[in-house]
Amino acid sequence: SAGSSHRRARHNRSPSQLRTPHLMANLVPPHNVTVASAGSTATIRWEQRQSDPPLSYQYRVYLKAAGETGFKTVFSGRNDDCAHTCSGLQTGTTYTAKVVAYTLGNVTGVESPSVSFTTGAAAPQQAPARFRVAATTLDSVTLQWEAPPGPLTHYLLYLDEEGKDAYAEETLTAAATTYVHTYLFPDTAYRYQASRGRSVALLFHSPPKKEKTSLCVFPPPLRKK
């Protein structure tokens, strides 16, 4: 009969053919990709709708800077938070990001629409504050300053002597706030510059006797010769 013929046709399918419609769920691409950036850091977030039947998704996050020809993988693996933070980005630069959802059974995956964002400009670095001569002797001078705001790794202190072609350069730790320059010649002009991105400079004239020091600001930075 027509009914039995229909049943025979269904039973003639292989077991794999019978299971295929239930196992081959379509991958759903990530959507609503957003980026929140601050300076050299950006957090990429996305949303994921579940497949039917549910799948165990993993993700690849891609990033490309303006002018680059290809995307770079910045994250790959499981990510239940649907978010990834990228650090060390170039400031003031436009990037394009996209997210690919994949499974172990389909590593190619499906990708989200691309989104573009621009990182913020680098915060201007400030020079050491209140750079000054704090104390003197006949053959030494003590320099003092205050730490500027923001991250700090070290200071560069430049010292030169009036009439000399070269200058000395000292690297000081971020915790340093004083420096003692010793073995000065009497009645000689010395110039100092403390640098941390921007520079401030001062002039110290060693006294022939125990006299007060003179202090003045030099607008141009020192140049290494």
Largest sheet properties: 5 strands, antiparallel
Number of strands: 15
Q: SS-based structural class?
A: mainly beta
Residues in helix, %: under 10%
What would you call the shape?
rod-shaped
Mean pLDDT: 77
DSSP strand (E) fraction?
A: over 45%
Distance between the termini: 104 Å
Q: What letter string, H or E per element, gives the SSE order?
A: HHEEEEEEEEEEEEEEE
Question: How does this structure look, described?
Answer:
This protein has 225 residues and is mainly β. The chain is 8% helix and 47% strand. Strand 1 and strand 2 (41-47) form a beta hairpin. The longest helix has 10 residues, at 2-11. The chain is rod-shaped.
Write the layout of secondary structure elements.
Elements lengths: L1 H10 L3 H9 L7 E8 L2 E7 L10 E8 L6 E6 L5 E4 L7 E10 L2 E6 L3 E4 L10 E9 L2 E7 L7 E8 L5 E7 L4 E5 L6 E8 L1 E8 L20
